[in-house]
Amino acid sequence: MAKKINKIAVLTSGGDAPGMNAAIRAVVRSCSYYNLECVGVYRGYQGLIEGDFEDLTARSVRNIINKGGTFLKSSRSEEFKTEEGRAKAHKKLTDAGVDALVVIGGDGTFTGGLYFNKEFDFPIVGIPATIDNDINGTDYTLGYDTALNTVVEAIDKIRDTASSHNRLFLIEVMGRDAGDIALNSGIGAGAEEILLPEEDQGIQRMMDSLEKSKKSGKTSSIIVVAEGEKSGKNIFQLAEFISQSHKEYDIRVSVLGHIQRGGSPSCFDRVLASKLGVGAVEALTDGKTNIMVGVHHQKVVHVPLETALKEDREFDQELRRVANITSV
Ligand code: F6P
Protein backbone atom coordinates (compact mmCIF):
# COMPACT_ATOMS: atom_id res chain seq x y z
CA MET A 1 0.00 0.00 0.00
CA ALA A 2 1.23 3.48 -0.89
CA LYS A 3 2.56 5.57 2.01
CA LYS A 4 0.23 8.35 3.17
CA ILE A 5 1.30 11.72 1.81
CA ASN A 6 1.53 14.51 4.40
CA LYS A 7 4.10 16.84 2.93
CA ILE A 8 4.65 17.76 -0.72
CA ALA A 9 7.55 19.67 -2.28
CA VAL A 10 7.21 21.61 -5.53
CA LEU A 11 9.88 22.86 -7.92
CA THR A 12 10.24 24.40 -11.36
CA SER A 13 13.05 23.29 -13.64
CA GLY A 14 14.38 23.85 -17.17
CA GLY A 15 13.33 26.81 -19.30
CA ASP A 16 10.80 29.06 -17.57
CA ALA A 17 7.32 29.28 -19.07
CA PRO A 18 4.40 31.63 -18.40
CA GLY A 19 1.96 29.86 -16.09
CA MET A 20 4.61 28.27 -13.86
CA ASN A 21 3.72 30.65 -11.01
CA ALA A 22 0.04 29.89 -11.44
CA ALA A 23 0.84 26.17 -11.25
CA ILE A 24 2.93 26.58 -8.07
CA ARG A 25 0.06 28.57 -6.57
CA ALA A 26 -2.41 25.81 -7.42
CA VAL A 27 -0.17 23.14 -5.89
CA VAL A 28 0.33 25.16 -2.69
CA ARG A 29 -3.35 25.99 -2.35
CA SER A 30 -4.42 22.40 -3.03
CA CYS A 31 -2.10 21.30 -0.22
CA SER A 32 -3.68 23.86 2.04
CA TYR A 33 -7.19 22.73 0.99
CA TYR A 34 -6.36 19.09 1.80
CA ASN A 35 -4.47 19.96 5.02
CA LEU A 36 -1.09 18.92 3.68
CA GLU A 37 2.19 20.71 4.25
CA CYS A 38 3.89 22.25 1.25
CA VAL A 39 7.54 23.11 0.65
CA GLY A 40 8.85 25.24 -2.21
CA VAL A 41 12.23 24.23 -3.64
CA TYR A 42 14.26 27.10 -5.11
CA ARG A 43 16.35 26.75 -8.33
CA GLY A 44 14.93 23.41 -9.48
CA TYR A 45 16.93 20.23 -8.98
CA GLN A 46 20.02 22.20 -7.93
CA GLY A 47 18.07 23.66 -5.02
CA LEU A 48 16.87 20.16 -4.17
CA ILE A 49 20.48 18.99 -3.88
CA GLU A 50 21.38 22.00 -1.72
CA GLY A 51 18.24 21.87 0.43
CA ASP A 52 17.17 25.35 -0.66
CA PHE A 53 13.64 24.94 0.70
CA GLU A 54 10.95 27.20 2.09
CA ASP A 55 7.66 26.27 3.73
CA LEU A 56 4.80 27.67 1.70
CA THR A 57 1.27 28.47 2.82
CA ALA A 58 -1.76 29.59 0.85
CA ARG A 59 -0.77 33.21 1.54
CA SER A 60 2.83 32.72 0.33
CA VAL A 61 1.51 32.50 -3.23
CA ARG A 62 -0.70 35.59 -3.25
CA ASN A 63 -0.46 37.95 -6.24
CA ILE A 64 1.52 35.60 -8.47
CA ILE A 65 -1.17 34.10 -10.73
CA ASN A 66 -0.59 36.91 -13.24
CA LYS A 67 3.23 36.87 -13.18
CA GLY A 68 5.50 35.38 -15.84
CA GLY A 69 8.65 33.41 -14.99
CA THR A 70 8.80 31.44 -11.75
CA PHE A 71 9.26 32.91 -8.29
CA LEU A 72 10.87 29.62 -7.21
CA LYS A 73 13.44 30.23 -9.97
CA SER A 74 14.67 27.57 -12.35
CA SER A 75 17.91 25.91 -13.36
CA ARG A 76 19.33 23.13 -15.48
CA SER A 77 21.33 21.11 -12.93
CA GLU A 78 24.31 19.09 -14.18
CA GLU A 79 24.82 17.66 -10.68
CA PHE A 80 21.34 16.13 -10.63
CA LYS A 81 22.32 14.13 -13.72
CA THR A 82 24.72 12.18 -11.48
CA GLU A 83 23.77 9.43 -9.00
CA GLU A 84 25.62 11.25 -6.22
CA GLY A 85 23.67 14.43 -6.90
CA ARG A 86 20.36 12.62 -6.80
CA ALA A 87 21.35 10.82 -3.57
CA LYS A 88 22.09 14.19 -1.94
CA ALA A 89 18.72 15.49 -3.09
CA HIS A 90 16.95 12.44 -1.67
CA LYS A 91 18.61 12.95 1.70
CA LYS A 92 17.58 16.62 1.80
CA LEU A 93 13.99 15.67 1.04
CA THR A 94 13.76 12.91 3.62
CA ASP A 95 15.51 15.07 6.24
CA ALA A 96 12.84 17.69 5.62
CA GLY A 97 10.10 15.07 6.03
CA VAL A 98 8.88 15.46 2.45
CA ASP A 99 6.82 12.52 1.14
CA ALA A 100 6.31 13.46 -2.51
CA LEU A 101 7.46 15.85 -5.20
CA VAL A 102 5.71 17.86 -7.92
CA VAL A 103 8.07 18.83 -10.75
CA ILE A 104 7.01 21.55 -13.17
CA GLY A 105 8.92 21.67 -16.45
CA GLY A 106 9.63 19.95 -19.76
CA ASP A 107 11.39 16.82 -20.96
CA GLY A 108 14.65 17.36 -19.02
CA THR A 109 12.65 17.87 -15.83
CA PHE A 110 10.66 14.70 -16.38
CA THR A 111 13.75 12.67 -17.22
CA GLY A 112 15.33 13.75 -13.93
CA GLY A 113 12.12 12.87 -12.07
CA LEU A 114 12.00 9.44 -13.65
CA TYR A 115 15.56 8.59 -12.57
CA PHE A 116 14.85 9.88 -9.09
CA ASN A 117 11.72 7.77 -8.75
CA LYS A 118 13.43 4.64 -10.05
CA GLU A 119 16.36 4.98 -7.65
CA PHE A 120 14.49 5.94 -4.47
CA ASP A 121 10.90 4.89 -5.14
CA PHE A 122 10.01 8.48 -4.29
CA PRO A 123 6.52 9.60 -5.41
CA ILE A 124 6.76 12.08 -8.29
CA VAL A 125 4.15 13.83 -10.40
CA GLY A 126 5.07 16.11 -13.31
CA ILE A 127 3.27 19.16 -14.67
CA PRO A 128 4.16 19.91 -18.31
CA ALA A 129 5.46 23.46 -18.71
CA THR A 130 7.36 24.59 -21.78
CA ILE A 131 6.49 27.12 -24.46
CA ASP A 132 7.45 24.50 -27.09
CA ASN A 133 4.39 22.27 -26.45
CA ASP A 134 6.61 19.27 -27.17
CA ILE A 135 5.43 16.83 -24.51
CA ASN A 136 3.66 13.66 -25.50
CA GLY A 137 0.24 12.83 -24.03
CA THR A 138 -1.03 16.33 -23.28
CA ASP A 139 -2.83 18.58 -25.74
CA TYR A 140 -1.13 21.64 -24.25
CA THR A 141 1.85 22.48 -22.08
CA LEU A 142 1.90 25.51 -19.79
CA GLY A 143 3.22 28.64 -21.46
CA TYR A 144 2.53 27.59 -25.02
CA ASP A 145 -0.66 29.61 -25.43
CA THR A 146 0.91 32.74 -23.96
CA ALA A 147 4.01 32.36 -26.16
CA LEU A 148 1.85 31.96 -29.26
CA ASN A 149 -0.01 35.15 -28.47
CA THR A 150 3.27 36.98 -27.89
CA VAL A 151 4.63 35.74 -31.21
CA VAL A 152 1.51 36.64 -33.18
CA GLU A 153 1.48 40.12 -31.66
CA ALA A 154 5.12 40.60 -32.63
CA ILE A 155 4.58 39.37 -36.21
CA ASP A 156 1.53 41.64 -36.57
CA LYS A 157 3.78 44.58 -35.74
CA ILE A 158 6.46 43.45 -38.16
CA ARG A 159 3.77 43.10 -40.84
CA ASP A 160 3.12 46.85 -40.61
CA THR A 161 6.70 47.51 -41.67
CA ALA A 162 6.75 44.69 -44.21
CA SER A 163 3.71 46.05 -46.02
CA SER A 164 4.70 49.73 -45.72
CA HIS A 165 8.10 49.06 -47.32
CA ASN A 166 7.25 46.11 -49.61
CA ARG A 167 9.74 43.96 -47.71
CA LEU A 168 10.37 40.30 -47.20
CA PHE A 169 10.77 39.44 -43.51
CA LEU A 170 12.27 36.22 -42.19
CA ILE A 171 11.18 35.82 -38.57
CA GLU A 172 12.77 33.23 -36.30
CA VAL A 173 10.63 31.79 -33.51
CA MET A 174 11.57 29.32 -30.77
CA GLY A 175 11.20 25.57 -31.19
CA ARG A 176 14.42 23.58 -31.24
CA ASP A 177 12.70 20.28 -31.95
CA ALA A 178 9.04 21.15 -32.30
CA GLY A 179 7.32 23.36 -34.85
CA ASP A 180 4.12 23.99 -32.88
CA ILE A 181 4.90 27.66 -32.26
CA ALA A 182 6.02 28.24 -35.86
CA LEU A 183 3.10 26.45 -37.50
CA ASN A 184 0.39 27.96 -35.33
CA SER A 185 1.80 31.48 -35.22
CA GLY A 186 2.50 31.27 -38.95
CA ILE A 187 -1.15 30.50 -39.65
CA GLY A 188 -2.40 32.97 -37.05
CA ALA A 189 -0.25 35.80 -38.35
CA GLY A 190 -0.80 34.98 -42.03
CA ALA A 191 2.74 33.98 -43.03
CA GLU A 192 3.48 33.12 -46.67
CA GLU A 193 5.78 30.25 -45.71
CA ILE A 194 6.62 28.34 -42.53
CA LEU A 195 9.81 26.30 -42.02
CA LEU A 196 9.57 23.58 -39.41
CA PRO A 197 11.91 21.13 -37.63
CA GLU A 198 9.55 18.24 -38.41
CA GLU A 199 9.96 18.44 -42.17
CA ASP A 200 12.82 19.12 -44.48
CA GLN A 201 11.07 20.44 -47.52
CA GLY A 202 14.20 21.97 -48.94
CA ILE A 203 14.98 25.56 -49.76
CA GLN A 204 13.55 25.16 -53.25
CA ARG A 205 10.04 24.92 -51.86
CA MET A 206 10.53 28.26 -50.11
CA MET A 207 11.86 29.82 -53.32
CA ASP A 208 8.91 28.43 -55.31
CA SER A 209 6.44 29.79 -52.84
CA LEU A 210 8.09 33.23 -52.91
CA GLU A 211 7.86 33.14 -56.70
CA LYS A 212 4.19 32.21 -56.48
CA SER A 213 3.52 35.01 -53.99
CA LYS A 214 5.09 37.52 -56.34
CA LYS A 215 3.11 36.29 -59.34
CA SER A 216 -0.11 36.41 -57.37
CA GLY A 217 0.44 40.11 -56.70
CA LYS A 218 1.81 40.07 -53.15
CA THR A 219 4.10 43.00 -52.46
CA SER A 220 5.41 41.93 -49.07
CA SER A 221 6.03 38.55 -47.47
CA ILE A 222 6.53 37.00 -44.08
CA ILE A 223 8.35 33.71 -43.61
CA VAL A 224 8.24 32.15 -40.16
CA VAL A 225 11.29 30.01 -39.41
CA ALA A 226 11.41 27.66 -36.40
CA GLU A 227 14.87 27.78 -34.81
CA GLY A 228 15.29 24.04 -35.31
CA GLU A 229 14.22 23.92 -38.98
CA LYS A 230 16.12 21.49 -41.15
CA SER A 231 17.40 23.37 -44.22
CA GLY A 232 20.91 23.34 -42.77
CA LYS A 233 21.14 27.13 -42.97
CA ASN A 234 20.56 29.56 -40.15
CA ILE A 235 18.12 32.39 -40.70
CA PHE A 236 20.82 34.89 -41.75
CA GLN A 237 22.22 32.40 -44.28
CA LEU A 238 18.71 31.83 -45.60
CA ALA A 239 18.29 35.58 -46.10
CA GLU A 240 21.65 35.73 -47.88
CA PHE A 241 20.69 32.79 -50.10
CA ILE A 242 17.44 34.46 -51.17
CA SER A 243 19.09 37.81 -51.78
CA GLN A 244 21.72 36.28 -54.06
CA SER A 245 19.21 34.88 -56.51
CA HIS A 246 16.55 37.57 -55.99
CA LYS A 247 18.17 40.97 -55.87
CA GLU A 248 14.75 42.59 -56.12
CA TYR A 249 13.80 41.58 -52.56
CA ASP A 250 14.38 44.03 -49.74
CA ILE A 251 15.00 41.45 -46.99
CA ARG A 252 15.10 41.86 -43.22
CA VAL A 253 15.66 39.26 -40.50
CA SER A 254 14.05 39.36 -37.08
CA VAL A 255 14.91 36.87 -34.33
CA LEU A 256 12.23 37.05 -31.66
CA GLY A 257 14.29 35.19 -29.01
CA HIS A 258 13.46 35.20 -25.34
CA ILE A 259 10.65 37.74 -25.48
CA GLN A 260 8.64 34.63 -26.38
CA ARG A 261 9.26 33.06 -22.97
CA GLY A 262 8.30 35.98 -20.73
CA GLY A 263 5.22 37.94 -19.89
CA SER A 264 1.99 37.61 -18.02
CA PRO A 265 0.30 34.25 -18.71
CA SER A 266 -2.86 34.20 -20.83
CA CYS A 267 -6.13 33.28 -19.15
CA PHE A 268 -5.91 29.91 -20.91
CA ASP A 269 -2.52 29.19 -19.29
CA ARG A 270 -3.70 30.35 -15.86
CA VAL A 271 -6.72 28.05 -15.97
CA LEU A 272 -4.63 25.16 -17.31
CA ALA A 273 -2.05 25.73 -14.56
CA SER A 274 -4.78 25.73 -11.92
CA LYS A 275 -6.30 22.49 -13.24
CA LEU A 276 -2.94 20.75 -13.43
CA GLY A 277 -1.77 21.98 -10.02
CA VAL A 278 -4.90 20.64 -8.34
CA GLY A 279 -4.63 17.46 -10.45
CA ALA A 280 -1.02 16.88 -9.37
CA VAL A 281 -1.77 17.07 -5.65
CA GLU A 282 -4.88 14.91 -6.00
CA ALA A 283 -2.91 12.33 -8.00
CA LEU A 284 -0.29 12.10 -5.25
CA THR A 285 -2.84 11.78 -2.45
CA ASP A 286 -4.53 9.04 -4.52
CA GLY A 287 -1.26 7.11 -4.41
CA LYS A 288 -0.23 7.81 -8.03
CA THR A 289 3.41 8.29 -8.92
CA ASN A 290 5.66 8.49 -11.96
CA ILE A 291 3.00 10.22 -13.98
CA MET A 292 2.46 13.55 -15.65
CA VAL A 293 -0.87 15.31 -15.24
CA GLY A 294 -1.80 16.58 -18.68
CA VAL A 295 -4.93 17.70 -20.44
CA HIS A 296 -6.79 15.94 -23.23
CA HIS A 297 -10.10 17.20 -24.61
CA GLN A 298 -10.30 19.63 -21.65
CA LYS A 299 -10.03 16.84 -19.07
CA VAL A 300 -7.08 16.23 -16.75
CA VAL A 301 -5.38 12.95 -17.69
CA HIS A 302 -2.63 10.86 -16.10
CA VAL A 303 0.18 9.90 -18.45
CA PRO A 304 3.16 7.70 -17.45
CA LEU A 305 6.31 9.86 -17.44
CA GLU A 306 7.90 7.43 -19.92
CA THR A 307 5.06 8.05 -22.37
CA ALA A 308 5.28 11.81 -21.88
CA LEU A 309 8.93 11.63 -22.88
CA LYS A 310 8.39 9.66 -26.09
CA GLU A 311 9.66 11.53 -29.08
CA ASP A 312 7.14 10.24 -31.60
CA ARG A 313 4.64 13.07 -31.24
CA GLU A 314 2.43 13.23 -34.29
CA PHE A 315 3.00 16.21 -36.51
CA ASP A 316 -0.22 18.02 -37.37
CA GLN A 317 -0.41 17.42 -41.14
CA GLU A 318 -3.89 18.91 -41.25
CA LEU A 319 -2.61 22.21 -39.90
CA ARG A 320 0.20 22.19 -42.47
CA ARG A 321 -2.45 21.70 -45.18
CA VAL A 322 -4.43 24.65 -43.80
CA ALA A 323 -1.26 26.77 -43.85
CA ASN A 324 -0.61 25.85 -47.50
CA ILE A 325 -4.15 26.67 -48.58
CA THR A 326 -4.48 29.96 -46.70
CA SER A 327 -1.17 31.33 -47.90
CA VAL A 328 -1.93 31.24 -51.66
O1 F6P B 1 12.59 24.81 -24.20
C1 F6P B 1 12.09 26.03 -24.60
C2 F6P B 1 13.06 26.80 -25.42
O2 F6P B 1 12.43 28.01 -25.51
C3 F6P B 1 13.47 26.29 -26.80
O3 F6P B 1 12.55 26.51 -27.82
C4 F6P B 1 14.74 27.05 -27.02
O4 F6P B 1 15.57 26.43 -27.95
C5 F6P B 1 15.35 27.02 -25.66
O5 F6P B 1 14.28 27.00 -24.76
C6 F6P B 1 16.28 28.16 -25.36
O6 F6P B 1 16.79 27.94 -24.07
P1 F6P B 1 17.81 28.88 -23.30
O7 F6P B 1 16.98 29.80 -22.46
O8 F6P B 1 18.63 27.97 -22.49
O9 F6P B 1 18.56 29.64 -24.34
Automatic annotation (TrEMBL):
<feature type="binding site" description="in other chain">
    <location>
        <begin position="190"/>
        <end position="192"/>
    </location>
    <ligand>
        <name>ADP</name>
    </ligand>
</feature>
<dbReference type="GO" id="GO:0061621">
    <property type="term" value="P:canonical glycolysis"/>
</dbReference>
<keyword id="KW-0808">Transferase</keyword>
<keyword id="KW-0021">Allosteric enzyme</keyword>
<feature type="binding site" description="in other chain">
    <location>
        <position position="227"/>
    </location>
    <ligand>
        <name>substrate</name>
    </ligand>
</feature>
<feature type="binding site">
    <location>
        <begin position="106"/>
        <end position="109"/>
    </location>
    <ligand>
        <name>ATP</name>
    </ligand>
</feature>
<feature type="binding site">
    <location>
        <begin position="76"/>
        <end position="77"/>
    </location>
    <ligand>
        <name>ATP</name>
    </ligand>
</feature>
<feature type="binding site" description="in other chain">
    <location>
        <position position="159"/>
    </location>
    <ligand>
        <name>ADP</name>
    </ligand>
</feature>
<keyword id="KW-0418">Kinase</keyword>
<dbReference type="GO" id="GO:0046872">
    <property type="term" value="F:metal ion binding"/>
</dbReference>
<keyword id="KW-0067">ATP-binding</keyword>
<feature type="binding site" description="in other chain">
    <location>
        <begin position="258"/>
        <end position="261"/>
    </location>
    <ligand>
        <name>substrate</name>
    </ligand>
</feature>
<dbReference type="GO" id="GO:0006002">
    <property type="term" value="P:fructose 6-phosphate metabolic process"/>
</dbReference>
<comment type="pathway">
    <text>Carbohydrate degradation; glycolysis; D-glyceraldehyde 3-phosphate and glycerone phosphate from D-glucose: step 3/4.</text>
</comment>
<dbReference type="GO" id="GO:0048029">
    <property type="term" value="F:monosaccharide binding"/>
</dbReference>
<protein>
    <recommendedName>
        <fullName>ATP-dependent 6-phosphofructokinase</fullName>
        <ecNumber>2.7.1.11</ecNumber>
    </recommendedName>
</protein>
<dbReference type="GO" id="GO:0003872">
    <property type="term" value="F:6-phosphofructokinase activity"/>
</dbReference>
<dbReference type="GO" id="GO:0005945">
    <property type="term" value="C:6-phosphofructokinase complex"/>
</dbReference>
<dbReference type="InterPro" id="IPR035966">
    <property type="entry name" value="PKF_sf"/>
</dbReference>
<keyword id="KW-0479">Metal-binding</keyword>
<keyword id="KW-0460">Magnesium</keyword>
<dbReference type="InterPro" id="IPR012828">
    <property type="entry name" value="PFKA_ATP_prok"/>
</dbReference>
<feature type="binding site" description="in other chain">
    <location>
        <begin position="130"/>
        <end position="132"/>
    </location>
    <ligand>
        <name>substrate</name>
    </ligand>
</feature>
<dbReference type="InterPro" id="IPR015912">
    <property type="entry name" value="Phosphofructokinase_CS"/>
</dbReference>
<feature type="binding site" description="in other chain">
    <location>
        <begin position="174"/>
        <end position="176"/>
    </location>
    <ligand>
        <name>substrate</name>
    </ligand>
</feature>
<comment type="subunit">
    <text>Homotetramer.</text>
</comment>
<feature type="binding site" description="in other chain">
    <location>
        <begin position="218"/>
        <end position="220"/>
    </location>
    <ligand>
        <name>ADP</name>
    </ligand>
</feature>
<dbReference type="InterPro" id="IPR012003">
    <property type="entry name" value="ATP_PFK_prok-type"/>
</dbReference>
<dbReference type="GO" id="GO:0070095">
    <property type="term" value="F:fructose-6-phosphate binding"/>
</dbReference>
<dbReference type="Pfam" id="PF00365">
    <property type="entry name" value="PFK"/>
</dbReference>
<keyword id="KW-0324">Glycolysis</keyword>
<feature type="active site" description="Proton acceptor">
    <location>
        <position position="132"/>
    </location>
</feature>
<feature type="binding site">
    <location>
        <position position="252"/>
    </location>
    <ligand>
        <name>substrate</name>
    </ligand>
</feature>
<feature type="binding site">
    <location>
        <position position="107"/>
    </location>
    <ligand>
        <name>Mg(2+)</name>
    </ligand>
</feature>
<dbReference type="GO" id="GO:0005524">
    <property type="term" value="F:ATP binding"/>
</dbReference>
<dbReference type="GO" id="GO:0042802">
    <property type="term" value="F:identical protein binding"/>
</dbReference>
<dbReference type="InterPro" id="IPR022953">
    <property type="entry name" value="ATP_PFK"/>
</dbReference>
<feature type="binding site">
    <location>
        <position position="15"/>
    </location>
    <ligand>
        <name>ATP</name>
    </ligand>
</feature>
<dbReference type="InterPro" id="IPR000023">
    <property type="entry name" value="Phosphofructokinase_dom"/>
</dbReference>
<comment type="similarity">
    <text>Belongs to the phosphofructokinase type A (PFKA) family. ATP-dependent PFK group I subfamily. Prokaryotic clade 'B1' sub-subfamily.</text>
</comment>
<feature type="binding site">
    <location>
        <position position="167"/>
    </location>
    <ligand>
        <name>substrate</name>
    </ligand>
</feature>
<comment type="function">
    <text>Catalyzes the phosphorylation of D-fructose 6-phosphate to fructose 1,6-bisphosphate by ATP, the first committing step of glycolysis.</text>
</comment>
